[in-house]
Amino acid sequence: MSSEGLLNSAERLRAFERRGHDALARSYHEFFAAVTSLATEPLLDAVHLHPGTNLLDVASGPGALAAEAAKRGARAAGVDLSPRMVELAHQLHPGIEYREADVERLPFLDHMFDAVVCAFGLGHFPQPELAVAECVRTLAPGGRIAFAWWDDPARQRIQGLFREAVAEIGVTVPKDVPQGHDVFRFSDSGEFLRLLNGAGLTAVSVTEHTASFFVPDTETLWRGGLGSLVLTGAVIRYQDQATQDLIRTAFEHRAKVYKSAHGLTLPIAFKIGSGQRST
Q1: How many helices (H) and strands (E) would you count in the chain?
Q2: What would the DSSP string read from start to end of 231-277?
Q3: pLDDT at 3 over 50
Q4: Which CA distances in Å does 83 have to 41, 184, 207, 234?
């Protein structure tokens, strides 16, 4: 693809992500924020957070990660591409600065932060190499950076259940859903390491983490997923009712594996990639 084509593709994905997260900001917070919060502890550990740390949370969403860092004594700020996410973060955490910004054009000076964290934004960035370089630009010499991203859907079962059900039925993808962007590129630890090493970081590592997430029933999971997963949700909502019903049936069949008398316990798996800016 030409450089112009790459730019157009990136802008298309960026616009799609902004619209999608604007539309789902509240429902994302109500369901999926509890899933992403599973990475809070390892992310803050990876940047060696301590009282007084000047921290930036990139792709901050409803703002919980920056808020937790502030609770632990950091001077925290957050940025997100979605204005509705930023608005919601301000409502939920009024004492913290959240700003609307594109990760490739952060509104901060060089070397401004001791730590940069990002919980599950990486695979949504149209040009991840540029995004990581821009994050590193804002990092002080010796500062640390950490990204959380999902493991393969075979081990990360919320996304896995939806994606497998859609693939089983076979559907037409809406024209406004960008194609060709590999959201699971950094589920591969080798790709993750190459990205961080390519940004000139030192002490680079990628660690694997597993957890579980409980939902009371498949209806909660179905509604929660549709209200949180921007790309997959858009694909499902585009289908006619008969096709949506087929997807739902395939989804229910797969979800049975995780059922107990009390609800569903879903395996969650993610990776933390981290490094340090050289002094």
Answers
A1: 11, 7
A2: HHHHHHHHS-HHHHHHHHHHHHHHHGGGB-SS-EEEEEEEEEEEEE-
A3: no
A4: 26, 25, 32, 19
- Strands 264-276 and 202-215 come out as antiparallel
Nearest Cα to 133, choosing from 156, 153, 104, 93? 104
Does the predicted model carry a pTM greater than 0.90?
yes
163-183 core/surface letters (b: 16 or more CB in 10 A; e: else)? bbbbeebebeeeeebbeebeb
Residue 218 phi/psi, 5-degree rounding, is: -70, -30
CA–CA distance, 106 with 103 (Å, rounded to integer): 6
Give tens-digit pLDDT for 14-47.
999 999 999 999 999 999 999 999 999 999 999 9
3-state secondary structure of 119: strand
122 close to 150: Cβ distance less than 8 angstroms: no
Say how far apart CA 53 and CA 269 lie, in whole Å. 28
Whose structure tokens read 């939806």? 162
What's the CA gap between 217 and 33, in Å, rounded?
18
Torsions phi, psi of 158, nearest 5? -65, -55
Q: pLDDT (tens digit, 9 = 90+) per residue, 46-67? A: 999 999 999 999 999 999 999 9
Q: What angle do CA 232, 260, 166 make, to 5 degrees?
A: 20
Q: How far apart are the first and last CA of the chain?
A: 37
Pairwise CA distance, residues 100 & 106, whole Å? 9
The DSSP-derived string for 144-159 is EEEEEEE--TTTSHHH
* pLDDT one-digit tens code per residue, 173-209: 888 888 888 999 999 999 999 999 999 999 999 999 9
Tokens at 31, concatenated: 């369901």
